[in-house]
Amino acid sequence: MQFNGQRFLVVYSGVLTIAFVAAMLSGFAQTNKKLVVEELEVQRINVKEPDGTLRLIVSNAAKAPGIIIKAKEYPHPNRRVAGLIFFNDEGSENGGLIFGGEKTKDGDKRSFGHLSFDAYEQDQTMALNSQDGKEGRATKLQFTDYPDHSIVEDIEFMDSIKDLPKDQQEAKKKAYFDRKGKPTRRMRLARDADGSVVLAMNDLQGRPRIAMKVADDGTPSLKMLDENGKVVGQLAPQP
User: Fold this and answer.
1) Is 112 in contact with 97 (CB distance < 8 Å)?
2) Over 50: is that where the pLDDT of 104 sits?
């Protein structure tokens, strides 16, 4: 039987291709896995453990992630900024660093930065913020207590009432957070937009108990309050 020359060339080229691919794969398997480059342009980087657990996302504003809890992503209401989002050993978000700024069309100059660390499956238990805009410049360090339930419950609840009229939404939110608990601010150290600096400390129920302030004109003050907000002690400059 006569062998077709064209068919032989097709088979021969196929064998060479397979051999080339095999050699390439073998070479990659034997080489060092570290990749060194001088410059890399990306829109998002997902850092994962060998088992696939997400530990860090670095992204631009367009590729910013939603809220990720145990590898499941939920929509975030307003995260449209560049930065880094940190994740715990379970692949749940537990903090982040975001930043941005611009000069708007009306000439307003904006700049902001935010670093926070979250309670387990909850929100920002410690947050450092800095912002600059037409309202002025302000910086604050804030500590907040959060309830023990998962933020996923809050997300699912808010989604369940989103189509209700506004007044019904507010009534249901009040009943829900009265039952489940809500964030309680405990401490705020800030440079406010009016130029003053303050240190405010609250009790477990979020009630102000100590307020220290240096006004923009340099006047210092210290107030101590009871659970009803009544001043029970204070220090002020002597006239």
Assistant:
1) no
2) yes
